[in-house]
Amino acid sequence: MKAKKDKQNKLPNAVNPGKSGASGVRAPGRLPADSSVDIGRLLDLVASFPQQTICVVGDFVLDEFVSGEISRISREAPVLILRHRKAEAYPGGAANAVNNLVDLGARVLPVGVVGSDEGGSKLLGYFRAKGVNVSRILQSSHWTTTTKTRYLAGWTHTTEQQVLRVDREPQTEVPANLQARIADNAHKSSRGSDAVLISDYGLGAASPSLARGLHAKRVMLDSRYRLLEYRHVGVTAATPNEPEIEAAYHAQVGNDVGRLDDLGHRARRDLSLEALLVTRGKDGMALFEPNHPTRHIAIHGSDAPVDVTGAGDTVIAVFTLAVAAGATYLEAAQLANYAGGIVVMKRRTATVTRAEIESALRHDATIDR
Ligand SMILES: Nc1ncnc2c1ncn2[C@@H]1O[C@H](COP(=O)(O)OP(=O)(O)OP(=O)(O)O)[C@@H](O)[C@H]1O
Ligand SMILES: [Mg+2]
Q1: Could you give the angle at which helices 354-367 and 39-47 cross, rounded to 10 degrees?
Q2: Mean pLDDT estimate for the chain
Q3: Probe residue for ligand 1, chosen from 98, 299, 308 as the CB with the greatest number of ligand atoms within 8 Å
Q4: Does 280 map to a domain?
Q5: Which amino acid residue places its CA nearest to atom 19 of ligand 1?
Q6: How far apart are CA 310 and CA 321, in angstroms?
Q7: In the chain, where do the E strands start and end?
Q8: Ligand 1: nearest atom to the Cα of 311
């Protein structure tokens, strides 16, 4: 959902679950002993996903894709005419995290707000059809559902190309009375959950003050613009991408892994987190925990993705669910890494299922025998 970095840096000690065996890691280089991938253990964790209840609080977005063929140039103006073929809509932002959790078999308690508009009704209808309890997603005429519409042009046998994106967004802050009701709903839903996932895309449904009021076993955070404002509010772990952590500290990582190390450990300390997982696009992930060296995890599968839209939402969904199921942060990161590698091979804003993660794990277990 944002511009991706395209870096070429290679990391030392990369752990690649895609190349690991059932009994542990078989990656090259000097691997720390605690970086092993135990596929049997990961399979057990995935099997227990349906026993977990996750509350998701955040900014619900609708991702729309309108596709068609370019038929001709208009005579009204020098513009291309796209002949409409189809329109599809998928949950985006916090709603994408919810959708991923649902497809992973978890019980999900979504909390947020949508507008009394077409986008809001589509999102609620989508989740109702999947059997999700939407009673704590408010629908208000004082709010606009953020809707990102991509226009995609292509011919039958060509790859489609995005030619335009039109965003509908709220023009104001979330009204105070709605903010109070969201906080109240989050408070109620968090109490019965194994973990709370905060997906703050900067639209105002989730905030540091809301996080402070939660009564949750663990709070996992994805914040696009204000990671550091979540200091001292009881967040357990966070999954920023590399550009977000660079922006937070006005620093550049570039090809310097040492700088990533410094920033990661600094952010983990500043936010008093148990773990910080930095996602790095095609460069994989880096996990920071107290008293551990940085663990670098190379991507699972191909580095030629089909569509990276929403990959970060899939990552935090799996990371949260795995930790709720009793995973160590390293195990949770490894599972999230499998999921990230799978989801970027799917078109549009997509989800990953339990069966897909299990199949990737079993595949890796067999190829190493
Ligand atoms: N180019 C790529 N090749 C392979 N895997 C990728 C690529 N881009 C992303 N991924 C996978 O998806 C994960 C999350 O991607 P990324 O770091 O881009 O998150 P993000 O920027 O937060 O995503 P979002 O746009 O959803 O906010 C990566 O850690 C990796 O597993
Ligand atoms: Mg992200």
Answers
A1: 160
A2: 91
A3: 308
A4: yes
A5: 312
A6: 17
A7: 53-58, 60-73, 80-93, 107-115, 137-140, 146-153, 161-168, 195-200, 219-223, 237-238, 275-279, 285-288, 295-297
A8: 26
Overall pTM > 0.85:
yes
Closest CA relative to residue 52, chosen from 273, 186, 169, 216: 216
The torsion defined by the Cα of 123, 206, 6 and 345, in degrees rounded to 10, comes to -30
Name the residue among 211, 218, 34 with its Cα closest to residue 111. Answer: 211
Residue 21, pLDDT > 50, answer: no
In a domain, 1, yes or no: no
Q: Which of ligand 1's atoms lies nearest the C-alpha of 2?
A: 25
**CA–CA dist 111, 93 (Å, integer):** 13
Query: How many whole angstroms separate alpha carbon 216 and alpha carbon 52?
Result: 14
Q: Does some domain include residue 212?
A: yes
Residue 207 sits in a domain whose CATH number is 3.40.1190.20
Hey, what amino acid is at 229? E
**How high is the pLDDT of residue 242?**
98
Q: How far apart are CA 118 and CA 205, in angstroms?
A: 19
Instruction: Show the tokens assigned to 154.
Output: 């292509």
Q: How many domains does the chain have?
A: 1
Q: What is the DSSP string of 121-178?
A: HHHHHHHHHTT---TTEEEETT---EEEEEEEE--TTS--EEEEEEEE--SSPPPHHH
Q: Whose CA is nearest to atom 24 of ligand 1?
A: 312
Active-site annotation holds for 44: no
Residue 91 has pLDDT above 70, yes or no: yes
CA-nearest residue for atom 15, ligand 1, is: 281
Domain extent, residue 249, equals 17-61+92-142+173-367
